[in-house]
Backbone:
């Protein structure tokens, strides 16, 4: 993230309560991850030790230090989604995209080798009425079935 | 303009009413997150396009959610003099028809869910009309008939992005009354007498917490709204903020005045972008009208609210972790006392209440403690909003008086299991709660009764499980969740949950032994007794309750030779 854009974000957070997480949240949304160089800049500008910021981005699940692929798929693992088969949805995604399902550094985040898709999991979107649900690039899909997965993926350029 | 006098407020009320009942056709599209996900926004855009291109005299608005999630997208059509009609499962193909029929004073009958001839917003009453009596009335739909809407009284009927509509049905009149005619202590007294208890799950008397905060020494204090709704399976707060954000702001304004606090914060989870957006809009509108800022209602009282976002950590629902998170630290709980009311955000006395607790305040001031305490049960007054989800037929957002039985919620409102399956249990209280078997469905939903059966109220998620749900798997699911969300500060929670998970994995894989079950119970009790904060102390509940009520399912997974 270039410095000017970061300055614009920081400018919005003059009030101390909620500032640090607010700034990091906007970086995460715009860049879809937190680039380490940006984190260093934040450290300088907010006058916070880099170690402290590193602790934050690894503690809170909303942040990720790893870049993601072209399309980000987030599978909800909340209770209603779980009882309605979220695990099967995740497995089906892994199968179609050729992902291993392994968890690294305690965080489930996997990207296809062609960098087209990244799959992550979330604890709950609060869209429980349409369980099971998933997001693709922020777009919410409800009542998902394993059979519907290929159709959804195709909308984002995946080929059978 | 700034609202300073009751005349100012009255004139906005007229303007707002004019918007809700414009004297012409008004179409409302349910566009909270779930409505949007099933095509609500696409419907809105289609309707808008037709109305614009044909230059029709139809007022089109986004509304919040009326709660019957199963029937979304829901569109409301109001034709002057006729009952308001709710249309269910509306598709893009229906749009042309909805408009042309409305222009002829009619609605597509095959899409009608029900009609509303008049509506009690409690702070105001709206009369629509009696026509369309061949369709079922709102009160004839079982899903609605057994509910009592206090907190959700405006949801799905007004435009959450327009403060005028909230004022139109009597919004901010309670704040006006409080600030201009009541002493702060009288407000606290009113809230205490109403019996309002914290809706975040613990049920602490709200008025008492206000009093403690007020008496705490110090000039600078905070009031905070906990909107970090982290329980998987719970989305009441999201819906409340997306559908009626001003109710929350008004509640906080009244509370701030009562406690003499000028700084308010809403701590909201980053996973709720639409709720954040609507709150931002609401805050701007309230500031423009002078309902936040300096010298509110010309009383000399200053108050403003800011938003602080969370970032996905369940433990931040714990009060000290939440305060740390607002300060920009990792959300790790600390020992209490000191409580937040003594040493909270930035070390200042802080009153922390859940979204729904704040939402109860305007109606308590408007209608009085006596009116409020007549709803619900003794010691458990008022209503509670629940998200009724999982394997239940009528999925949705429901509001009932406290003390209503689980049976009534799951069968009368929820219509029992989905797809004709048998309901087996309901999970309340999220990862801190437990699973209650059908045979205990007579249990009234109140703070104490739920504790007695081993679970808790929590924030209000009710996840229904049916005959196909394996209860040991559910226990494992929650321990996996809690273990992942443990902040790692204290050993019982960090290590204990991890080992409980290992044992549960073994059992679910069919490799468990009798000894494993005993060890699991022992560990569960240890984690419960020795963890630092509520997360660890309550995390074993799903295991303990499933062991208590569904022991046979554990036994079934233990192979005989083991």
Residues:
């Amino acid at each position: 993230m270039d410095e000017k854009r970061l300055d614009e974000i920081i400018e919005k957070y003059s009030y101390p309560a909620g500032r640090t997480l607010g700034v990091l949240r906007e970086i995460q949304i715009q860049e879809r991850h937190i680039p380490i160089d940006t984190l260093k800049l934040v450290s300088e500008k907010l006058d916070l030790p880099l170690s402290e910021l590193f602790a934050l981005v690894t503690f809170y699940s909303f942040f990720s230090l790893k870049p993601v692929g072209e399309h980000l798929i987030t599978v909800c693992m909340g209770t209603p989604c779980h009882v309605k088969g979220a695990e099967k949805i995740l497995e089906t995604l892994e199968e179609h995209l050729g992902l291993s399902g392994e968890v690294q550094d305690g965080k489930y985040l996997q990207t296809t080798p062609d960098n087209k898709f990244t799959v992550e999991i979330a604890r709950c979107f609060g869209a429980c009425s349409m369980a099971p649900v998933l997001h693709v690039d922020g777009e919410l899909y409800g009542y998902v079935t394993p059979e519907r997965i290929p159709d959804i993926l195709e909308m984002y350029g995946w080929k059978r | 303009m700034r609202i300073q006098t009751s005349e100012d407020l009255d004139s906005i009320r007229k303007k707002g009413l004019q918007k809700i009942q414009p004297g012409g056709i008004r179409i409302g599209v349910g566009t909270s997150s779930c409505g949007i996900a099933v095509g609500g926004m696409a419907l809105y855009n289609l309707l808008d396009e037709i109305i614009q291109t044909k230059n029709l005299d139809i007022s089109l608005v986004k509304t919040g959610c009326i709660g019957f999630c199963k029937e979304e997208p829901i569109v409301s059509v109001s034709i002057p003099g006729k009952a308001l009609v709710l249309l269910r499962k509306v598709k893009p193909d229906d749009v042309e028809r909805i408009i042309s029929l409305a222009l002829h004073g009619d609605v597509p009958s095959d899409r009608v869910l029900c009609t509303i001839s008049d509506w009690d917003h409690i702070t105001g009453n709206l009369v629509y009309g009696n026509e369309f009596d061949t369709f079922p009335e709102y009160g004839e739909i079982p899903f609605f008939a057994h509910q009592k809407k206090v907190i959700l009284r405006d949801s799905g009927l007004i435009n959450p992005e327009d403060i005028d509509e909230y004022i139109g049905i009597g919004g901010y009149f309670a704040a006006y009354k409080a600030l201009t005619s009541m002493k702060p202590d009288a407000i606290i007294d009113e809230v205490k007498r109403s019996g309002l208890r914290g809706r975040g799950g613990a049920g602490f008397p709200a008025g008492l917490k206000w009093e403690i905060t007020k008496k705490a020494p110090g000039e600078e204090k905070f009031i905070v709204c906990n909107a970090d709704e982290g329980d998987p399976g719970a989305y009441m707060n999201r819906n409340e903020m997306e559908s009626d954000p001003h109710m929350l702001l008004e509640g906080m304004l009244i509370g701030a005045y009562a406690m003499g606090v000028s700084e308010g914060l809403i701590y909201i989870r980053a996973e709720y972008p639409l709720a954040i957006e609507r709150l931002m809009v609401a805050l701007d509108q309230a500031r423009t009208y002078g309902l936040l800022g300096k010298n509110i209602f010309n009383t000399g009282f200053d108050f403003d609210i800011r938003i602080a976002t969370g970032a996905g950590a369940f433990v931040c629902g714990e009060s000290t972790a939440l305060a740390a998170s607002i300060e920009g630290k990792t959300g790790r709980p600390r020992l209490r006392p000191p409580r937040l009311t003594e040493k909270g955000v930035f070390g200042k006395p802080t009153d922390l209440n859940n979204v729904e607790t704040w939402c109860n305040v305007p109606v308590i001031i408007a209608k009085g403690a006596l009116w409020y305490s007549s709803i619900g049960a003794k010691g458990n007054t008022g209503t509670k909003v629940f998200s009724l989800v999982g394997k239940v037929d009528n999925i949705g957002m429901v509001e009932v008086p406290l003390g209503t039985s689980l049976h009534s919620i799951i069968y009368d409102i929820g219509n029992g299991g989905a797809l004709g399956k048998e309901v087996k249990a309901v999970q309340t209280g999220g990862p801190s709660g437990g699973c209650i078997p059908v045979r205990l469905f007579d249990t009234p939903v109140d703070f104490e009764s739920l504790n007695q059966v081993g679970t808790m109220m929590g924030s209000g998620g009710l996840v229904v499980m049916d005959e196909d749900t394996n209860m040991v798997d559910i226990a494992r699911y929650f321990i996996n969740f809690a273990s992942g969300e443990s902040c790692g500060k204290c050993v019982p929670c960090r290590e204990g949950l991890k080992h409980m998970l290992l044992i549960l994995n073994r059992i679910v894989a069919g490799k468990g032994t009798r000894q494993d079950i005993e060890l699991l119970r022992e560990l569960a009790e240890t984690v419960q007794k020795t963890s630092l904060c509520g997360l660890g102390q309550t995390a074993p509940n799903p295991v303990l309750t499933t062991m208590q009520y569904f022991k046979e399912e554990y036994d079934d997974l233990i192979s005989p030779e083991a």
User: Anything to note?
Assistant: Chain B touches chain A through 61 residues (CB under 8 Å). The mean pLDDT of chain B is 96. Residues 31 and 172 of chain B are 24 Å apart (CA to CA). Residues 376-466 of chain B form a domain with the Ubiquitin-like (UB roll) fold (CATH 3.10.20.600).
